[in-house]
Specification:
Its EC number is 1.13.11.24. Belongs to the pirin family. By secondary structure, the protein is mainly β. It has one helix and 26 strands.
């Protein structure tokens, strides 16, 4: 998944100085960003008020879009470093190609997990023969310093564990929830889960009080800790919670994102996560010169050129703007 903004802003993330240590209800509004030729996304992280939730550093929600007569998602080859990408669909299909030679179609409720490590490039596209609707989320997880130079790899998991309760079915995408653990590889204490709620469902979800959490609304209307949440919005919840009240006024789906607050300060610019101005600038140079990130074979089109860097040095500053 690429940040296709041709004038990307620098996001300085991480560090514990601005972690909210107690439960809060902080509603995050999205901004709209163009994705490829025919799709728009709602960007929830990085946000004007908050840059990270645990190690989750980037969250886009898109659709549902009627692409019956449209090309759908068409994201040409682009680079990543220092992060993991998580592809999560409710409707439609996305064909993933990468510079390792991976070729995989990701379908609804399947995990497409790419660990960029030191460097990788990939493309994402809606297949020529595809479903009418496209609806999903694209997310990034920042890699800690000890693991951010690992060898790149791609994982696809079609069978994920579930946690169920009356009116609730939770698919564990990453990490662990209520004793159920995802097979996806993680490098920090983290959790990601997709919760399907039937109309009238009311439950309390067990949480880790050492984690900070947020809930992204995917569809329908759910009340999260008594806050009504509509599709495309996200509620930041802070830390210190042992459970989370959920109530659905219609059939609904939300994503729970959480993790141990990310200690390190990071620099995130375009599709790179690094630690210094020099590192980001070197990554841009390597991509433009055809070094290090490899080649995506089979995609019909040229790779995406990197935007121009800002004229001032990039400096870490903290978790919130």
């Amino acid at each position: 998944m690429s940040n296709l903004d041709r004038q990307p802003t620098l996001s300085v993330c991480g560090g514990r100085g601005f972690v909210v240590a107690e439960p809060v209800r902080e509603l995050l509004s999205p901004r709209t960003v163009q994705l490829g030729e025919s799709s728009e996304v709602r960007r929830l992280l990085p946000n004007l008020g908050r840059r990270m939730v645990g190690a989750w550093a980037f969250v886009d929600h898109y659709g549902p879009d009627d692409i019956a007569d449209e090309p759908g998602m068409q994201v040409a080859p682009h680079p990543h470093m220092g992060l993991q990408t998580v592809s999560w669909l409710h409707e439609g299909e996305v064909l993933h190609r990468d510079s390792l030679g991976s070729l995989q179609t990701v379908r609804p409720r399947e995990l497409g997990l790419m660990t960029s490590g030191r460097a990788i490039s990939h493309s994402e596209e809606t297949p020529a023969t595809h479903s009418r609707f496209l609806h999903g989320a694209q997310l990034w997880v920042a890699l800690p310093d000890a693991h951010r130079h690992v060898e790149p790899h791609f994982q696809h998991h079609a069978d994920l564990p579930h946690v169920t309760a009356p009116g609730v079915d939770a698919t564990v995408i990453l990490g662990e929830l209520d004793g159920a653990a995802s097979p996806g590889t993680t490098y920090t204490p983290i959790v990601g889960a997709d919760l399907t709620l039937t109309a009238g469902a009311e439950t309390r979800l067990p949480l880790n009080p050492d984690f900070e959490y947020a809930v992204l609304s995917m569809s329908g209307e759910a009340h999260v800790d008594e806050v009504p949440l509509l599709p495309g919005s996200m509620l930041y919840l802070g830390c210190g919670r042992t459970e989370l009240p959920l109530r659905a006024t219609s059939d609904a789906s939300v994503m729970l994102l959480g993790g141990e607050p990310f200690e390190e300060e990071i620099l995130m610019w375009w599709n790179f996560v690094g630690r210094s101005n020099e590192e980001i600038r070197q990554a841009r140079s390597d991509w433009m010169n055809g070094d290090r990130f490899g080649e995506v074979k089979g995609y019909d089109g040229p790779p995406i050129p990197a935007p121009e860097l800002p004229p001032v040095p990039l400096k870490p500053r903290g978790r919130v703007r």
